[in-house]
Task: structure prediction
Amino acid sequence: MAKREEYEAKTESFLMPLMKENNFELVDVEYVKEAGNWYLRAYIDKEGGITVDDCEIISRKLGDWLDEKDFIADSYILEVSSPGLGRPLKKDKDFNRSIGEDVDIKLYKPLNKQKDFTGTLISFDKDTVTIAQEDGAELTLNRPEIALIRLAFDF
Result:
């Protein structure tokens, strides 16, 4: 197992009981390098939305545990946050939670001379994603052709 996956898995298994205890949902854990720094990020959510205080509580407990276990060799920055808008949908549970929501989809290559689509997420399976476009027309896209799918910003 890659170091990254091991760190994510260990962190996830520590967080699961905390999530249950607080009625939170663990959306994702990622260990990524950005601009030369390693980040260990936990995305958490709950009915009605996560607050800064919620993130603070989890961050403190997670930080203490990580200091004690000390299994990550690199120096890294710990972040605990809510998934928020504009976060990519990756896992089935992300899609499930977003049914009926507006999503932006970016394709790797154009379909009918268009790469960007916005619509309401109607359904998905392991191969496809279906949205209802503004004109009511349904559009089914193949998941391998989707570069990015995320909740749309409504401003």
About this structure: Helices lie at 3-22, 52-69, 92-98. The mean pLDDT is 90. The CA atoms of residues 1 and 95 lie 27 Å apart.
